[in-house]
Specification:
- With 124 residues, the protein is mainly beta.
- Helix content is 0%, strand content 52%.
- Strands 2, 4, 5, 6, 9, 10 and 11 form a seven-stranded mixed beta sheet that branches. Strands 1-3-8-7 form a four-stranded antiparallel beta sheet, with no helix packed on it.
- Strand 4 and strand 5 form a beta hairpin.
Length: 124
């Protein structure tokens, strides 16, 4: 079982930046973050959860069109931490942001594990 804890959310004005972090842990001492695809999802009120970005075990990154050029995903396997640098934020980025992990590969659908989320609010 993998536990994911997000942090770094908050309130910011349009045009501002935030960096989200996701700390991963597991009960097994053999847990290695590098064996997992990591991703970020978000869900705004009244809308379905949507994919934001992912980074595979091979460091290949993917982004939703809506965040390309503004968000950067990265990982530090030694620290067991995933990051999402968000720049040029707009009110449309307001949502609960969730960290996700999936063993070995990056799925098109549901990930194995999902965090509790961190709220990002962007005001105009």
């Amino acid at each position: 079982q993998v536990a994911l804890v997000e942090s770094g959310g908050g309130s910011v004005q349009a045009g501002g930046s935030l960096r989200l972090s996701c700390a991963a842990s597991a009960s097994t001492i053999t847990f290695t973050l590098s064996n997992y695809c990591m991703g970020w999802f978000r869900q705004a009120p009244g809308r379905e959860r949507e994919f934001v970005s992912s980074i595979g075990t091979n460091q290949i990154t993917k982004y939703a069109d809506s965040v390309k050029g503004r968000f950067t995903i990265s990982r530090d396997n030694a620290k067991r931490t995933l990051y999402l640098q968000m720049n040029s934020l707009t009110p449309e980025d307001t949502a609960m942001y969730y960290c996700a992990a999936h063993a070995v590969y990056c799925p098109l659908g549901t990930y194995n594990y999902l965090g509790q989320g961190t709220q990002v609010t962007v005001s105009s």
